[in-house]
Design a protein that fits this description.
The complex is a heterodimer of chains A (about 400) and B (about 220). Chain A has a domain at about 10-30 and about 135-290. Helix content of chain A is about 50%, strand content about 15%. Chain A has 14 helices and 8 strands. Chain A has an 8-stranded mixed beta sheet, with helices on both faces. In chain A, helix 1 packs across helix 7 (about 170-190), helix 1 crosses helix 11 and helix 7 packs across helix 14. The radius of gyration of chain A is 23 Å and the shape is globular. With about 220 residues, chain B is α+β, with helices and mostly antiparallel strands. Chain B has 2 domains: about 1-125; about 125-220, Glutaredoxin (3-Layer(aba) Sandwich), CATH 3.40.30.10. Chain B is built from 7 helices and 4 strands. In chain B, strand 3 (about 190) and strand 4 form a beta hairpin. In chain B, helix 1 runs parallel beside helix 3 (about 95-120). Classes of the chains: A alpha/beta (about 400), B alpha+beta (about 220). The interface of A and B includes residues 288, 318 and 343 of A.
């Protein structure tokens, strides 16, 4: 049996998953979500910005919040300095006199404590979170608020993109974020979201308080809160045109560190306190499809990588051993002309090509439904050629960390 | 039926259709390869028969058909490369591959005989290599030997290399093996009638050729 056969089930599941996303994208709830317009209701809103050594970005983050198109008397901004040791307090002080801004300084206790400190200060109907390295479009809040019309909805996520991608790695992440926009939009239409990301997610304050506020959540307080919301039977919506831009790691090391934190947080939460959600019929798409697929994606990502690595190494070894002793000019230079006869057409390659092409389509769909400006061509190219090579590293690192119980510092 | 169930069923149907289409496309392309091989083989059969007939007709001046023979050998080599690729795609136990290999082996034997007759009639001294291999998994050096011979054939086009699957169940091939007294130690080479077994390196293989033969052949680069 060829080793390639081992990949067939995973590729089959990947195609099924992507087909499901495309079909759901065309279904009525997703279409209705896309047709949703910016409403006139203006509940009171507090946006909490937890900061720890964010002197270089906090001013721009705060400026973007102050530029939100929302009645000023209905919007407050709470900057929480979580014991920064850099110039964050001084930068924050520039906003001290602004009537919409409140500044809190506390001892360092982690992001979840900063969020809770902000929540404790407000009586706003809705509380939002914005990471201090993220920036919002002026109409983002107006896109978010109408999602709360449904009383069952207690949290709403936004559409994230990478802020000014500079290098190829950031372009790759931008494409990936665009993929995420599509997935969040689709899963939200089935109440299948299991994370309310730090950049510009909003909550009903009373429900957050009822649920006990934010927790450490294995360094992923946003995921833990979303899982707790789902576990309690509430709904999480998505505003696909609420655009928010966040800074992405610009080095492979930083990216792997960030993603290792995300994946270990996911695994520890989902295999720990929220294990009951997996396979739960009561939680519909989340329990039966989204969470099992997310777990399977981690396993298949590692196995497909190892399989591809094995096949690649085996082919290279065979090619080198066959060519040993043959003059380089013949062995390693192409000879002959293109002939369709020799076109590689294996079942494995073609299935993988379908998965990749559908991924590219979903990335472009994400960009379109969020109306995110900018050219994504470089992102697509880097995603196609780079993403699959890097992902396995954080998947392997995260799963091994979880397996041996290793905890890492989360800053990158 | 819930929306999730309905969409999951539709997605499953799409997945099955896509996987089925891919399986059909792969099979279709492989069959197209076999069809192309059959076409080439038909043409080679005609060419071989034509050469054989030409040789008989020109008994008075048989050497006039030497050029045609060289071209035919070259086309046979290309056909062999394609057949080898098709075998790697379809598997060595595919019925059509086996049939094509049998016909290919027959054409090679026929070309080998014509080459020998031409050599006798015209006094030429072609360098012929009968190469016996196996892809049953019991010949770890056969791939290396095959590649080295491809290199030699590419470098010295006047070399006439004939490759045979030692285990092919073909009467003419068994007779050739019996006539040339090739033992089942693979890879095996019969270079201008001289036997050698096993493959270590290109340099060692080149030593098996009659002295000066490769030097007097025409390298392509």
């Amino acid at each position: 049996m060829s080793p390639e056969v081992l990949a067939y089930p995973f590729l089959f599941i990947a195609i099924f998953f992507e087909s499901f996303v495309l079909v759901t994208l065309l279904s009525k709830p997703a279409r209705a979500a896309r047709a949703r317009t910016q409403g006139e209701t203006t509940p009171s809103v507090a946006v909490i910005v937890p900061c720890w050594n964010e002197a270089s970005t906090i001013a721009a983050t705060c400026d973007s919040l102050l530029a939100l198109q929302y009645p000023k008397e209905r919007l407050e901004i709470i900057l929480v300095d979580d014991g920064s040791t850099d110039a964050t307090p001084e930068v924050m002080a520039h906003f001290a006199q602004h009537p919409q801004v409140r500044i809190v300084r506390k001892e360092n206790g982690g992001k979840h404590t900063a969020l809770n400190a902000g929540i404790a200060l407000t009586q706003a109907d809705l509380v939002g979170c914005l990471d201090a390295d993220s920036f919002v479009e002026p109409d983002a809040l107006r896109e978010v608020v109408p999602c709360f019309v449904d009383p069952q909805v207690v949290a709403v996520t936004a559409a994230m993109s990478v802020h000014k991608p500079g290098n190829i790695l950031q372009h790759m992440q931008n494409a990936e974020y665009s993929f995420g926009i599509t997935l969040r939009h689709v899963f939200a239409s089935l109440n299948g979201l299991y994370v309310t990301p730090g950049p510009f997610s909003f909550y009903r304050r009373d429900v957050v308080e009822k649920l006990g506020g934010f927790r450490y959540g294995h360094q992923t307080e946003d995921m833990e809160m979303a899982l707790r919301i789902q576990n309690a039977g509430y709904g999480i919506e998505n505003a696909p045109r609420a655009r928010v831009y966040t800074q992405a790691p610009d080095t492979i090391r930083g990216l792997i560190k960030q993603r290792t934190r995300w994946i270990t947080g996911f695994l520890r939460n989902i295999l720990g306190e929220y294990r009951g959600l997996i396979g739960s019929r009561r939680h519909g798409a989340l329990g039966l499809l989204v969470l099992p697929t997310a777990l399977l994606a981690i396993v298949s990502g590692i196995l497909l990588f190892l399989l591809t690595l094995f096949l690649f190494a085996r082919n290279i070894f065979t090619a080198l051993s066959i060519r040993a002793g043959i003059p380089l000019s013949y062995a390693y230079l192409p000879h002959g002309s293109f002939d369709w006869f020799y076109l590689p057409t294996s079942f494995y390659l073609l299935l993988a090509a379908i998965v990749l092409m559908t991924s590219v389509t979903l990335i472009m769909v994400g960009k379109r439904i969020s109306k995110t400006p900018g050219n994504i061509a470089l992102g697509l190219v880097s995603y196609v050629f780079l993403y699959g090579l890097i992902v396995p590293f954080w998947l392997i690192r995260a799963t091994s960390d979880v397996a041996v119980g290793k905890r890492r510092d989360w800053r990158y | 039926m819930s929306l999730v169930t309905r969409n999951a069923l539709i997605a499953l149907a799409i997945t099955i259709v896509l996987a089925g289409t891919v399986a059909y496309a792969v099979n279709y392309l492989n069959r197209a390869r076999v069809a192309e091989l059959s076409t080439i083989e038909d043409q080679l059969s005609i060419d071989t028969l034509s050469l054989d007939t030409q040789f008989s007709l020109l008994e008075a001046a048989p050497c006039d058909s030497a050029a045609s023979s060289t071209t035919l050998t070259s086309e046979l080599a290309d056909f062999g490369t394609r057949l080898s690729y098709a075998e790697s795609q379809l598997g060595s136990d595919d019925a059509q591959v086996i049939r094509l290999k049998e016909q290919y082996s027959l054409l090679e034997i026929r070309d080998y005989l014509i080459t020998n007759r031409l050599a006798q009639a015209c006094g030429t001294k072609p360098v012929t290599v009968l190469y016996f291999y196996s892809n049953n998994g019991n010949c770890s050096d056969c791939d290396k030997a095959g590649y080295a011979l491809s290199y030699l054939r590419n470098t010295y086009p006047s070399l006439r290399v004939y490759s045979f699957d030692y285990n092919l169940d073909l009467g003419a091939l068994k007779t050739l093996i019996a006539v040339t007294k090739v033992r089942n130690i693979l890879p095996a080479f019969v270079i201008n009638g001289k036997h050698s077994y096993g493959f270590t390196s290109l340099a060692d293989l080149e030593k098996q050729f009659p002295k000066g033969v490769l030097a007097t052949s025409t390298p392509t680069f």
